[in-house]
Amino acid sequence: MSGRSLYDLPRSVLALGPVVILLSIFGLLYLTSPFGDLASVDEASTLEILWMLTVIGALAGVVPVAIGMLWFPFIRDLDPRYLHAFLALAAGVLVFIAIEMTEDIADYAGAAENTSAAVVLAVVGVAGTFAVMYVASEWRGRKMASTEKSGLEIAYLVALALGLHSIGEGLGIGVAYVQGDATLVMLLVLAFVLHNVMEGPTVVAAVARDRETPPLYHFAAMGLIAGGPVILGGWIGSFAQSDLLAVFFFAIAVGAILQVLIEVAELIRFDAEAVLTRINAAAFANGFVLMFLLEDVLGDLLLEGWLVPV
Which UniProt keywords apply (predicted)? Predict the structure, then answer.
């Protein structure tokens, strides 16, 4: 028995296990509504506010990403064609997130007192981040020209892009918290749990095509990079409710995602003759549609009160 590992479990368990864990945590949050009393938030100390937002941010960001990463053993043993399809699905998730954040940029820019400054920040954030990451990628590519392309490095880039996007999620939680709106805080957490659970497999999909499984600390680090910034965003949102700041953070995240999409395509091209195959196109579309269902359908139902427990 000592020689057995997680990979020896039935594939059905590896595929459905994370779903069971997610539903259990989601149901626990949904039924208990742990943020039901924020009436004393005006009297809370700075340390108490930061601590509570750390707990909320961990539940909304770190925990669902970690649950999503539990799909790694299932993804790890997929046929290369289906592994490429999983990478394409991750790209579909990233494209949806980028489009959502572009809409957020437009909303925050329109609400800002200085719209021109918001537009400049948006352009600088997107173009500047893309340019910096592109130059870094080209330099890394020249260094690795004679070696196999590393999925682990790209996984870290994916985690970084998702982490930058997570700051924007935290901003919304922080603002709702200091306003004492417990219902909105709870709904945002539930919506982000649904949303962020797909970030886990999006991160580890690139690692799965490497020959060797990296040490566990890499998974922990990538999970914190992808989900942890929800906490940072909550801190910022509780003290600096700035439309311009939100525009800048979202713009940086969009620029990072654009570069990561190129990296994901290159990772597939390194192993396969073509990036755009029928199975990859279908997986990309499924990733986009899945995020639409989680974010715009279930998320909106939550925020509109359809799924609020009585």
Answer: Membrane, Transmembrane, Transmembrane helix
- Are the CB atoms for 230 and 62 separated by under 8 Å? yes
What is the residue range of 40's domain?
A: 10-303
Distance of CA 18 to the CA centre of its chain: 16
| Contact yes or no for 97/222 (Cβ under 8 A) | no
Residue 4 falls within a domain, yes or no? no
Residue 234 located in a structural domain: yes
pLDDT at 302: 59
Supply 149's token pair.
């392309």
Could you read off the pLDDT of 256-287 as tens digits, one per residue? 888 888 888 887 777 666 777 888 899 999 98
**203, 91 contact by CB (below 8 A):** no
What interhelical angle do 80-111 and 115-143 show, nearest 10? 150
Q: Is 58 exposed, middle or buried (0-12, 13-18, 19+ CB in 10 A)?
A: middle
**76-87 pLDDT tens trace:** 877 778 888 888
Q: What is the number of structural domains in the chain?
A: 1
Look at residue 179 and tell me whether its pLDDT is greater than 70: yes
195 occurs within a structural domain: yes
Euclidean distance between the first and the last CA atom of the chain, given in angstroms as a whole number:
47
